[in-house]
Write a structure and sequence with these properties.
0% strand, mainly alpha, 132 residues, globular
């Protein structure tokens, strides 16, 4: 996969958002079938879009959570929820985002989002009961 400046910027942003431990397995398993998808992902999604200065990364993360819940993409939602935590989104900000999405996307979408969030918070060591 040929690398250019936007690709390199995208990889830096991808790693910043999700961390090396989550990115390395993805990039180490790129093959001839999906290499163009990954190039597109890194250049346009994480290079062009996440590289823009128009919104802070926390807001981009919260936007993604809304969209992924509404589109019923639980795997990507879980991934981006971890990214939101890495970006400094607080549990309160995430909770308020999920409550708003529940109203607009429906109770089943909200229930699934809260279920996944509880799992991710536990795995990431974020207390959901207010204790440290």
């Amino acid at each position: 996969m040929a690398e250019n400046n936007m690709y390199k910027e995208g990889e830096r942003n991808f790693r910043k958002l999700f961390g090396d431990a989550r990115v390395d397995p993805v990039l180490n398993n790129v093959n001839q079938f999906d290499d163009e998808f990954h190039r597109f992902l890194l250049e346009y999604c994480f290079g062009e879009l996440w590289g823009r200065e128009g919104l802070p990364w926390k807001q981009r993360s919260l936007n993604n959570l809304c969209l992924l819940i509404g589109l019923n993409r639980p795997n990507e939602y879980e991934t981006h929820l971890r990214g939101a935590i890495n970006n400094g989104c607080t549990m309160e900000e995430i909770k308020e985002t999920l409550l708003q999405v529940t109203v607009y996307a429906g109770i089943p979408a909200g229930a699934e989002a809260f279920k996944i969030a509880n799992k991710v918070f536990e795995e990431e060591g974020v207390s959901v009961n207010g204790d440290a």
